[in-house]
Q: What sequence folds into this?
């Protein structure tokens, strides 16, 4: 049922595989994930395509990307998928995201040990849906970590994992990756601000105003519901988000 020349399983294309490998290789250079840590995925129909477990990024190729079924987490093709596959699946279940990036970036991790929430020290936080919550610590790869990460993601496109790292979501892999960089940058800004004094932060209405202004600047584009809005409880993830929307995420509910 391939619709495109390079499509293989249910819409996972060679371009998807190459995109995952390319972003995985960028993570070390961008100081988002040292060694083989971190992982990335995209959702296409009833499958996710995710980076494999324990394979150095410089040796990873498109054929090493694993396909996992969202309904039962069964491996459809590829080597051993990331140990954090349960967490990716939980976040897809809880959101309309089409891509997820999991990082071990240093400033985010440092702050995860002392904060319950990363405050909005810059208006760029609007792109993440507001102050980013820190999910309680649980061992990597566990369903407990997956559940707490999904809960802490509510209304956001990012979540921080205590003593561990972070995840960012988006309608495309590129947007999820940029959000991972934005989150690390925001953590660094907050770190520096704390050293200098007590940071002034932006409230929810200020962030909503930013989201509205961005939307106005993109006037004329179709603005679908946020890809981060969870589907109605019990409903399967909608198929519409496989086509990346061009819009910004919808802002959180007004104050
Ligand atoms: Zn991790």
A:
């Amino acid at each position: 049922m391939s619709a495109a020349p390079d499509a293989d399983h249910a819409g996972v294309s060679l371009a998807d595989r190459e995109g995952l490998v390319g972003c995985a290789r960028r993570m070390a250079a961008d100081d988002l994930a040292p060694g083989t840590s971190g992982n990335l995925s995209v959702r296409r129909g009833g499958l996710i395509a995710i980076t494999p477990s324990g394979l150095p990024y410089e040796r990873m190729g498109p054929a090493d990307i694993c396909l996992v079924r969202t309904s039962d987490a069964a491996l459809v093709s590829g080597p051993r998928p990331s140990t954090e596959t349960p967490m990716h699946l939980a976040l897809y279940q809880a959101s309309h995201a089409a891509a997820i990036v999991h990082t071990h970036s240093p400033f985010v991790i440092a702050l995860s040990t002392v904060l319950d929430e990363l405050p909005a020290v810059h208006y760029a936080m609007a792109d993440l849906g507001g102050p980013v919550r820190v999910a309680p610590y649980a061992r990597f790869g566990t369903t407990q970590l997956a559940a707490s990460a999904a809960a802490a993601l509510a209304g956001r496109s990012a979540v921080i994992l205590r003593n561990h790292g972070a995840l960012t979501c988006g309608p495309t892999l590129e947007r999820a990756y940029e959000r991972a960089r934005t989150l690390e940058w925001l953590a660094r800004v907050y770190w520096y601000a704390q050293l200098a004094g007590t940071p002034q932060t932006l409230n929810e209405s200020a962030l909503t105003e930013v989201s509205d202004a961005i939307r106005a600047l993109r006037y004329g584009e179709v603005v679908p519901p946020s890809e981060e809005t969870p589907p109605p409880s019990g409903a399967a993830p909608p198929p519409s988000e496989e086509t990346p929307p061009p819009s910004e995420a919808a802002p959180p509910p007004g104050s």
